């Protein structure tokens, strides 16, 4: 497969997944990750490119939606997820990344299943999770984010409950991804992983990212949030299954 065709297919994936993130405030990297790995054949290259693209999108929304940020919840989320990130960075270097990918896929399946249950089952039939367990989701999300830059599905288990307003949720989540991914991007620079090839791939994919942001902004204002939550969590469930099954 030629480089042009690979980047074109990756671009389509980036466009679709970043449109979803522009609508909801999360999900682009975890949705794109398994498909981009399959196309590029390099788990670390996929991680770096998707991390930087997600960082650009997050910075844009964190700046333009600054007034909608829920600062109290951002502080709680950043604290617990930030504590987990260094552990994830070490795990990625110390253990087989494909084994970790399957563990991540299992976490995503569980996360998506819980969220879909909350959407479809009446609230009075679901017991509230203990606060300590909610904070564990944040900590585990930080670990997963440090390893793969895709810990959002676990962090969302906490955030979706604590920030019910759609605008506040998106703004707060994108500020969080700005913060966490800035750490990852700085790590890539210090380890000299931002190569000429990474730069070329990023420039090639930038138009797809911009297109996703524009379309996502339009849809965000016009379509039911509840419908798109269902779409995103069904997608997460599918991706989790794929990551567990595919080597």
Description:
- With 247 residues, the protein is mainly alpha-helical.
- The protein has one domain (3-245).
- Helices cover 84% and strands 0% of the residues.
- It has helices spanning 3-24, 28-40, 43-64, 71-94, 97-120, 131-148, 152-162, 166-190, 196-222, 225-245.
- Helix 1 packs antiparallel against helix 2, helix 2 runs antiparallel to helix 3 (43-64) and helix 6 (131-148) runs antiparallel to helix 7 (152-162).
Give the arrangement of secondary structure elements.
Layout: H1 3-24, H2 28-40, H3 43-64, H4 71-94, H5 97-120, H6 131-148, H7 152-162, H8 166-190, H9 196-222, H10 225-245
Helix pairs in contact: 1-2, 1-9, 2-3, 3-8, 3-9, 4-6, 4-8, 5-10, 6-7
Short description:
The mean pLDDT is 84. α3 packs across α8 (166-190). The protein is built from ten helices and no strands.
Tally of individual domains: 1
Largest sheet: none
Distance linking N and C termini: 20 Å
Q: Give the overall form.
A: globular
Q: Give the averaged pLDDT, no decimals.
A: 84
Task: Please tell me how large the radius of gyration is.
Answer: 17 Å
Number of strands: 0
Low-confidence stretches: none
Oligomer: single chain
> How many individual helices?
10
Helical content (DSSP H or I, runs of 4+):
over 70%
SSE class? mainly alpha
As a percent range, the share of strand residues is under 5%
Q: N-to-C SSE series?
A: HHHHHHHHHH
